Amino acid sequence: MTLRQLDVTASAADLARGGEIGDYIALLKPRVMSLVIFTALVGMLCAPVTPHPVLALASLLAIAVGAGAAGALNMWYDADIDRIMSRTRSRPIPAGLVSPEEAFSFGLTLSIGSVLVLGLAANWLAAGLLAFTIFFYAVVYTAWLKRRTPQNIVIGGLSGSLPPLIAWTAVTGSISLAPVVLVAIIFMWTPPHFWALALVRSGDYERAGVPMLPVVAGRAETRRQILLYSLALVPLGIVPAGIGLGGAFYLAVSVALGTVFLWLAVRLARGGEDGVGPVAKRLFAFSILYLFGLFAALLVERVAGLPSLI
Predict the structure, then answer these.
(1) Are 67 and 36 in contact (CB under 8 A)?
(2) Do the Cβ atoms of 44 and 60 come closer than 8 Å?
(3) What is the C-alpha to C-alpha distance for residues 92 and 145, in angstroms, rounded to an integer?
(4) What are 220-229's contacts with CB under 8 Å, separation 24+?
(5) Which residue in 118, 115, 243 sits closest to 182, CA to CA?
(6) Transmembrane segments in this chain: where (predicted)?
(7) Residue 2 burial class via C-beta count within 10 angstroms: exposed 0-12, middle 13-18, buried 19 and up
């Protein structure tokens, strides 16, 4: 795998001139990392114990760095298709700002370091979950699923779903139902979120040979699948209020946001092809607000000391 990838990205290596700090930060996928930090923070604060502030900060930092390390390894492996896609061709490796060897070493070093720090600062169960997350994203999703199956996002979404569970485990040392529900919400959110983007960028994925659902099954089937996943996601988003994790405020927010999410998914499923692009863009943008809103509602309740419904 290593030799193949290095051969494919040889031209980028020839252009690389030694990356600056900003280029290495870009390898970490900071926008994805920000979502990881936020969901992990909420998972940590929802736990039934109060962690030591220093250990909590160290744990969050380790989780964030681990997510960034997985992103760097993803960019290393995918540099060949990143050069083809307009959305990704300006990334550090295809742009010639960082060599493939440097990106791989950077990602691998941060992966090992983040797992060790989390194990020492918190516990080895949380560290094991973080190691699994990095491996799943970099190897199972990136190297195996992404170029082989249109279910790449569905299965691969597990890696992006685990941060709340890792953070919960970091402060409690155990796994319980509440963080698993948060994982399930993110897991079910991922397909409609990314498939909405794929509808807009299907030409990019087709040129790169990535079998995203719109490329393999067509746009109509993709819109149908988005609706089906949305129908499962929205009720699931309300579940935290029924298990004592969320209160009345969370219930109101989840119902309101879920109603809008479903409305957009129905519009996308029933609309004509001429309107797919604009509605898909709106659904993609709103899906980010939806997930942020759910976790923000939990955070507000914890900070304000609002009671749960159970």
Answers:
(1) yes
(2) yes
(3) 23
(4) 222/195, 222/198, 223/199, 223/268, 223/269, 223/276, 224/269, 225/191, 225/195, 226/191, 226/192, 226/195, 226/196, 226/265, 226/268, 226/269, 226/283, 227/265, 227/266, 227/268, 227/269, 229/188, 229/191, 229/192
(5) 243
(6) 32-50, 56-77, 97-118, 124-145, 152-171, 177-200, 226-243, 249-270, 282-300
(7) exposed
Euclidean distance between CA atoms 297 and 181, whole angstroms: 15
pLDDT per residue of the chain (310 residues) written in tens, 0 to 9: 443 444 444 444 444 345 799 999 999 999 999 999 999 999 999 999 988 999 999 999 999 999 999 999 999 999 999 999 998 999 999 999 999 999 999 999 999 999 999 999 999 999 999 999 999 999 999 999 999 999 999 999 999 999 999 999 999 999 999 999 999 999 999 999 999 999 999 999 999 999 999 999 999 999 999 999 999 999 999 999 999 999 999 999 999 999 999 999 999 999 866 567 899 999 999 999 999 999 999 999 999 999 998 8
Helices (H), 47-123: 53-77, 79-82, 100-121
Tell me the CATH class for 177-310: mainly alpha
Contacts 24+ apart (CB under 8 A), 53-57: 55/121, 55/122, 56/170, 56/171
Residue with tokens 């190297």: 143
Tokens of residue 115, six digits: 């797992």
Sketch the domain layout of the chain as residue ranges.
Answer: 6-175, 177-310
CATH superfamily of 6-175: UbiA prenyltransferase (1.10.357.140)
